[in-house]
């Protein structure tokens, strides 16, 4: 069943397919680069500012008291959805400690929860200001903390979340 003619047909088929692909590539190159590759005039130039020029103004940080003055606890409940995977409001600890009454309570106050120890080095209590700064960048505010969350960059979201947590009681 397998003879020389079959082998010749298979090899001819592969060579023909290779030839078609090679001619197709040549035709595409001729269409896309009619004057040859790299020999034409540049179609457009992107202006790039020189290094050392004027830097963009840095976004000014919003003080916590200004942000908290306009805080909305109802909107903070929506922001808390980001926290639910690790924290609870029913008094039960999960990956993180429960957040019932967290506003104003001492840092590392939940008995039986294994804290990393980094928080006690930067604060004594979870004041609104401490929470505001911590929620912006947990690793930056308390280096070595075991909280792996990247933080909330929007000052309004942080303030709304703190306002909501203040309503949860302890």
UniProtKB/TrEMBL annotation:
Keyword DNA-binding set for record: no
UniProt superkingdom: Bacteria
Lineage per the UniProt record: Bacteria, Pseudomonadati, Pseudomonadota, Alphaproteobacteria, Rhodobacterales
PANTHER family linked to this entry: CYTOCHROME C
Name the record gives this protein: Cytochrome c
Keyword Electron transport: yes
SUPFAM superfamilies: Cytochrome c (SSF46626)
UniProt xrefs under InterPro entries: Cyt_c-like_dom, Cyt_c-like_dom_sf, Cyt_c_1A/1B
Domain Cytochrome c: 71-169
UniProt cross-references to Pfam families, sorted A to Z: Cytochrom_C
UniProt GO MF annotations: electron transfer activity; heme binding; metal ion binding
UniProt entry keywords in alphabetical sequence: Electron transport, Heme, Iron, Metal-binding, Transport
């Amino acid at each position: 069943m397998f003879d020389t003619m079959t082998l010749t047909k298979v090899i001819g088929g592969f060579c023909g397919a290779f030839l078609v692909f090679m001619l197709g590539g040549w035709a595409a190159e001729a269409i896309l680069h009619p004057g040859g590759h790299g020999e034409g005039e540049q179609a457009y130039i992107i202006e790039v500012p020189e290094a050392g020029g004027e830097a963009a103004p840095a976004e000014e940080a919003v003080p916590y008291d200004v942000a908290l003055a306009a805080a909305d606890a109802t909107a903070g409940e929506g922001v808390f959805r980001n926290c639910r995977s690790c924290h609870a409001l029913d008094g039960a600890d999960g990956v993180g400690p429960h957040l019932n009454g967290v506003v104003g309570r001492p840092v590392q106050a939940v008995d039986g929860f294994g804290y990393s120890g980094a928080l006690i080095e930067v604060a004594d209590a979870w004041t609104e200001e401490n929470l505001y700064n911590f929620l912006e960048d947990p690793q930056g505010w308390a280096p070595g903390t075991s909280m792996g969350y990247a933080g909330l960059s929007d000052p309004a979201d942080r303030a709304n979340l703190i306002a909501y947590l203040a309503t949860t009681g302890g």
